[in-house]
Write a structure and sequence with these properties.
Shape: globular
CATH class: Alpha Beta
Bound molecules: flavin mononucleotide
Helix content: 25-40%
Low-confidence stretches: 321-331
Structural class: alpha/beta
CATH topology: TIM Barrel
Order of helices and strands: HHEEEHEEEHEHEHHEHEEHEHEHH
Length: 331
Amino acid sequence: MKHGLYNLAKPVLFSMDPERSHQWVMRLARWLPFLARQPQIQRPVKVFGITFPNPIGLAAGFDKNAEHLQVLSKMGFGSIEVGSVTPLPQDGNPKPRLQRLTDQEALINRMGLNNIGIDQVVRNLRNRPTNLILGASFTKNTATRFDQAIEDYRVCLERLYPVTDYLVADVSCPNTGELEASSNLEFLEALSASLKTMQRQLHIKQDRYVPLLLKLSSDWDQVILEPLTQILIRHSIDGVICGNTSHGLSGRPLFPKALALVKTMGQLLAGRIPIIGVGGISTRLDLLSMQEAGAELFQIYTALVYRGPQVVSELLGPNLTVSRHPPFVAG
Ligand SMILES: Cc1cc2nc3c(=O)[nH]c(=O)nc-3n(C[C@H](O)[C@H](O)[C@H](O)COP(=O)(O)O)c2cc1C
């Protein structure tokens, strides 16, 4: 929806339950797609072998089931990440499970990874718009025992590989009660090894390389991040997304934590693995701070809810590329 229109519609949308209003907005945008359309600003950036038209992506969770790609692909994003998807469909937590903290431009979600399952998501992705960089995030079913988790990730990786441009193993979902277990370094090592082996096999078989990223938790500290960095490098993980919500919290209050995570990972990785910065990005200054801390790409979710689709061009700002012929300054 255009900026002015979005601001007009916001009081009505914000008077509804947040999950319902999300469904309504997407339905409205599907019926009247011109309301959501934004120009795509070209600021090409090449990261892990992919040229993104601009560095701002839509974060995972907004279109979990890949049901709204026609509309979302017209909103000016440089990429869209669907998911997180699990092998089997699951309902997630009982409603209500999404709450607005309007004065802080924040959300608290306890969705519990509701999604329609890998079969249906892959079916939806077969008709995906092709003029779009598309990532897909995947994880285990909540009911899957932790010692069986790697198999769930493998099922999703294999199915998503042919229909996506990059893949994300989500090991940081904070609201399925298993975050501590998934930050277990032994698990992360075994998962990285297993998924990278599968990716190599699929690369050869399908003659197409799809980068594999890990999405980290903004609640992990140096004690986990330092050894994790060694794991990421050892297994040639293609990129990291820093990071997920903190105990379900997203939006502006998350920014300091997300920035700290990007800074730490920026220092530990020292340019060896690209970083996608995500968490509370809402202004151009936020984005520039993330960039200075080491992020090459950025994603947003909550800022889209509070600011509307115009936020993408606001974040990109004027093109500050230095002129090849700077004006002559006398003196
Ligand atoms: C309602 C909701 C659902 C989300 N679902 C997922 C998900 O399924 N998988 C995932 O990796 N991240 C999920 N996220 C996290 C976002 O991708 C992002 O990391 C987080 O919201 C921080 O960015 P933001 O402050 O710009 O919203 C979800 C966030 C929200 C608000």
